[in-house]
């Protein structure tokens, strides 16, 4: 089947046309970074307005780039949550309108399921696989057992790692988004000069914490500023290197544990997949690759454009749900919160 996907849950307005075999006919993403830049974060009201203004054009462009019309489609998939409610509502209303006008099936998609199913779109992974979702707003381990079957093994109890990279950049006067900027600085830095904590590594389970790192970093920064009157370039590089190393250490160890839990289920061709913008980080990627190899699992990292927010993943997750018999009526609701694993069978022996 061929689906139009619609995504508007955060600060990207996106539409895409995708076929069930993984062919992406088009994927249009319109970011809003410039609209929110002056405010130091995403402003929900501004985001909702921008989505409402841009969604129609985005969907039209996706169809045009695909060389298709609504008559060629088999369904409409739309992010129905979780996210900023104004944006989600805009997308859901457009999808309902299109479905009502064409008679096409309407399929509501959980945004996180979109991320979690992306390695099936890009690499045709078989269920079950382990997904590590690391973005600006999310951080969790999921065993993906089916299109609507997820087991959450743990995640961050505070900041997502992308958020921590962004805050670190802000702290050190580096540009946003912080991830690429901090990573670039870290290349010239000595990760051993500052001893940053490795939060929750001493506790069992797969939960993580990243907000303490930022506090520790702040303390080191202020100590240097008090002693020297400012930060030298090398200080900045060393702090970035220490921070990136700490995040990588935590992710590596927690991934090792999550992999062990997942492997205990006995997948035929075990695989660890990543999604989210932090998956772009080369040092973190290298660590995860090594952990997977050591455990005997394949490592799958989709192209970055499909790791960050996009509508191709929503169209594809919609197709997966549709194939499993899922669809929605005109009573589909937009949900600000929507945990993924409510439908999953309990995992035996998951010591959280
Ligand atoms: P979501 O709703 O999925 O959380 P988001 O927009 O917050 O969406 P993404 O678009 O998936 O998140 O990713 C953006 C985040 O990824 C930012 O926090 C950014 O700093 C981080 N990031 C991007 N590149 C890198 C990198 N090379 N290293 C570390 N972090 C990175
Ligand atoms: Fe996302």
UniProtKB/TrEMBL annotation:
Subcellular localization, as worded in the UniProt entry: Cytoplasm
Reactions that this protein is recorded to catalyse: L-threonylcarbamoyladenylate + adenosine(37) in tRNA = N(6)-L-threonylcarbamoyladenosine(37) in tRNA + AMP + H(+)
Known function: Required for the formation of a threonylcarbamoyl group on adenosine at position 37 (t(6)A37) in tRNAs that read codons beginning with adenine. Is involved in the transfer of the threonylcarbamoyl moiety of threonylcarbamoyl-AMP (TC-AMP) to the N6 group of A37, together with TsaE and TsaB. TsaD likely plays a direct catalytic role in this reaction.
Pfam families referenced in this protein's UniProt entry, alphabetically: TsaD
EC code: 2.3.1.234
Naturally occurring in which organism (per UniProt): Falsirhodobacter algicola
UniProt GO MF annotations: iron ion binding; tRNA N(6)-L-threonylcarbamoyladenine synthase activity
Keyword RNA-binding: no
A GO cellular component annotation in the UniProt record: cytoplasm
Cofactor(s) required, per the database record: Fe(2+)
Cofactor note: Binds 1 Fe(2+) ion per subunit.
Signal sequence residues: none
Residue sites binding Fe cation per the record: 111, 115, 309
Domain of life: Bacteria
Enzyme superclass (EC): transferase
Binding site for substrate: 133-137, 166, 179, 281
Similarity annotation: Belongs to the KAE1 / TsaD family.
Name under which the protein is recorded: tRNA N6-adenosine threonylcarbamoyltransferase
UniProt keyword annotations, A-Z: Acyltransferase, Cytoplasm, Iron, Metal-binding, Transferase, tRNA processing
One record GO biological process: tRNA threonylcarbamoyladenosine modification
Domain Gcp-like: 24-316
């Amino acid at each position: 089947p061929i689906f139009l996907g619609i995504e508007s849950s955060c600060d990207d307005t996106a539409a895409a046309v995708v076929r069930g075999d993984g062919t992406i006919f088009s994927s249009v993403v319109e970011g809003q970074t410039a609209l929110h830049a002056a405010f130091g974060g995403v402003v929900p009201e501004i985001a909702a307005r921008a989505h409402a203004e841009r969604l129609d054009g985005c969907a039209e462009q996706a169809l045009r780039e695909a060389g298709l019309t609504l008559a060629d489609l088999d369904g409409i998939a739309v992010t129905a949550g979780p996210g900023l409610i104004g944006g989600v509502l805009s997308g859901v209303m457009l999808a309902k309108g299109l479905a009502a006008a064409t008679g096409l099936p309407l399929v509501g998609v959980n945004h996180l399921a979109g991320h979690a199913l992306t390695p099936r779109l890009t690499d045709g992974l078989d269920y079950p696989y382990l997904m590590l979702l690391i973005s600006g707003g999310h951080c969790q381990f999921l065993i993906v057992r089916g299109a609507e079957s997820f087991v959450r093994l743990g995640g961050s109890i505070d900041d997502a790692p992308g958020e921590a990279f962004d805050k670190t950049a802000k702290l050190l006067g580096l540009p946003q988004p912080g991830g690429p900027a901090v990573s670039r600085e870290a290349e010239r830095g000595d990760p051993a000069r500052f001893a940053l904590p490795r939060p929750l590594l001493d506790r069992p389970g797969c939960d993580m914490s990243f907000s303490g790192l930022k506090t520790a970093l702040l303390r080191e920064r202020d100590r240097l500023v008090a002693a020297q009157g400012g930060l030298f370039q090398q200080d900045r590089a060393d702090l970035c290197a220490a921070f990136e190393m700490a995040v990588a250490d935590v992710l590596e160890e927690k991934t090792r544990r999550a992999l062990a839990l997942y492997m205990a289920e006995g997948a035929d061709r075990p695989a660890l997949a990543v999604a989210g913008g932090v998956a772009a980080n080369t040092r973190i990627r290298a660590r995860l690759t090594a952990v997977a190899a050591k455990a005997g699992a394949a490592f799958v990292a989709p192209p970055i454009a499909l790791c960050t927010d996009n509508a191709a993943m929503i169209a594809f997750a919609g197709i997966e749900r549709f194939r499993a018999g899922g669809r929605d009526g005109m009573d589909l609701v937009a949900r600000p919160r929507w945990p993924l694993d409510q439908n999953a069978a309990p995992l035996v022996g998951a010591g959280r």
